[in-house]
Amino acid sequence: MPNYKIAIVGAGPAGYFTAQALQKLQTNDLTFVIDMIERLPTPWGLVRSGVAPDHQKIKTVSKVFEKIAKESGFRLFANVELGKDISLKDLRDQYDAVVLATGAAVGRKLGIPGEDLKNVLSAADFVSWYNAHPDFANVEVDLNTDTAVVIGAGNVAMDVARILAIDPSELDATDVAEHALTKLKQSRIRQVIICGRRAPEHAAFTAPELRDLPKLENTDVYIDADQIKQAASRIEQLGEIEKDLKNNLEAMRLIAMYDKKGVVRRLRIKFLAAPKEIKGNGKVEEVIFTINKVKDSKVIATDKVFSIKTGLIITAIGYDAVEYPGIKITNGRIANIAGHVENNVYVTGWAKRGPTGVIGTNKSDSADVVDLIIKNLKEPKKSEGIRVLLKPGHQVIDQTGWEKINASEVISGELVGKPRIKEVDRKRLLNK
Ligand code: NAP
Fold first, then answer.
1. Ligand 1 atom 14: the closest Cα is on which residue?
2. H or E element, residue 273
3. Which residue's alpha carbon is at the smallest distance from atom 33 of ligand 1?
4. 70 C-alpha vs ligand 1 centroid, how far in Å?
5. Backbone angles phi, psi at 62, to 5 degrees
6. Atom of ligand 1 nearest to the CA of 50
7. For 260, which DSSP code?
8. In the chain, how many H helices and how many E strands?
9. Which pLDDT belongs to residue 129?
10. 326 against 172, higher pLDDT
11. What are the Cα distances from residue 19, in Å, to 15, 75, 90, 326, 337?
């Protein structure tokens, strides 16, 4: 009975859905040993360290991950880093197939003057900071300013803006990092401005996220009604309108129209504002934007500029895949053809297609890659797998170890009315 060894690198949604797709295709004649390798001591990837803490419902997908992990043949090897503790070549030699589900964790750069000033942060760092990612617990975040600017018009920009704009007490009953909650409670920020470089019809927000904005309890959300009207009229002239776009514009129209509560916390969404320069003396003080316009369906720069005085800028303009020795990155992704990297190495999720789509998008993506793997499988390798690759004494967190961490976090949370209190310290995570 062929029993194939598959290594999945990265314990985020794409990794788990790959494992699930393999499990679904198992038969009496085709079985898999699935080793999931994760560089952190904890699994769940962006579900743990990306999804916004005020979106707890999205995190319930972790129940699916735990079910996948309980299936026989599945093993977790957390606290094992590709390129450091284990090489791609070794994995390739030991396993019948290696699937890289390593995501896209590097925040893209704006490439404008002043980007390196203090308190200009990438969402990659800021989101990981408020979500208790052990590597980002010490990111310096200064919230001692009345206005924060978020650059980008996608859902990550919206997550970040919401976290900065809501009353922090709304995060009390969430799993936000304790260090972030303390800082947010001292925050002087009362206005957050999201700036998109193109027009409302080009925004990457999705309608459900937009529809939630007027429901914020302690924050008023503003959007320019004229800009939305002009966008609607432009797309009407183009003929048939895509449903998602129609929903987005309608959600934006409702934001412009709804009755504001008159509270001090404000979130503004501005369009056609392209960042040009960030100014400040050591630390950010101001950001200059070029005003763009739409002409013949194209977004072009005008010669007009405007500026916003701000002490904090978060850039949420997309991510690139992390580079590992032996892996080529092209256009921010691991170079691949339909998920095939080379020999018996495959890629899935954001590392494969770039940082697009919601958690569920990884399901079909991973199922396609698994079909390809199965098509290419040869005779099962006679090898020993990961154990022979790790240095003696290397501390692995296996599924039982993770379940202990998980239970301890949940119990500490329950005592204070939170879903969990995340441990941010690597050493303590390893000693749980
Ligand atoms: P995204 O959706 O691709 O949005 C990136 C934004 O950055 C776009 O508005 C883009 O504008 C802008 N941008 C790129 N380069 C720029 C530059 N140099 N200057 C100014 N603006 C620039 O990426 P994301 O927000 O990181 O989200 C990644 C994926 O995760 C998306 O699929 C998103 O829907 C998903 N996500 C979903 C949720 C949720 O469901 N609640 C939450 C978070 C993330 P252009 O369009 O002009 O390039």
1. 317
2. strand 273-280
3. 155
4. 34
5. -60, -25
6. 43
7. P
8. 14, 19
9. 98
10. 172
11. 6, 10, 20, 24, 20
Mutational pocket test of ligand 1: of 55, 155, 202, 358, the residue with most ligand atoms within 8 Å of the beta carbon: 155
> Which tokens is 199 given?
């027009």
**Tokens describing residue 356:** 């697009």
Residue nearest atom 13 of ligand 1, based on CA coordinates: 317
Contact 210, 248 (CB under 8 A): yes
Q: What is the arithmetic mean of pLDDT over 152-157?
A: 98
- Indicate the burial class of 198 (C-beta count within 10 angstroms; 0-12, 13-18, 19 or more): middle
C-beta of 358 in contact with ligand 1 (< 6 A): yes
DSSP string, 280-306: ESSBEEEEEEEEEEEETTEEEEEEEEE
CA atoms within 13 Å, Cβ hemisphere of 328? 7
Nearest atom in ligand 1 to the alpha carbon of residue 157 is 25
- Rounded distance between C-alpha atoms, residue 168 and residue 179, angstroms: 12
Pair 312, 149: CB distance under 8 Å: yes
pLDDT digits (tens, 9 = 90+) for 219-267: 999 999 999 999 999 998 888 889 999 999 999 999 999 999 999 999 9
3 state DSSP class of 320: strand
| Ligand 1 pocket member 200 (CB < 6 A) | no
pLDDT of 210 strictly over 70: yes
Q: Kindly state the tokens that stand for 127.
A: 């989101």
Per-residue pLDDT tens for 379-390? 999 988 888 899
Q: Tell me 101's DSSP state.
A: -
Three-class DSSP category at 237: helix
Distance between Cα 413 and ligand 1 center (Å): 32
Instruction: Tell me how far the alpha carbon of residue 385 lies from the centroid of ligand 1, in angstroms.
Output: 38
Mean pLDDT of 79-85: 96
- 428: tokens are 């303590």
Q: How far is the CA of 201 from the centre of ligand 1 (A)?
A: 14
Q: Other C-beta atoms within 10 Å of 13: how many?
A: 31
pLDDT in tens, 24-53: 999 999 999 999 999 999 999 999 999 999
CA 344 – ligand 1 centroid, Å: 32
Helix, strand, coil in percent for the chain, rounding step 5: 35, 25, 40
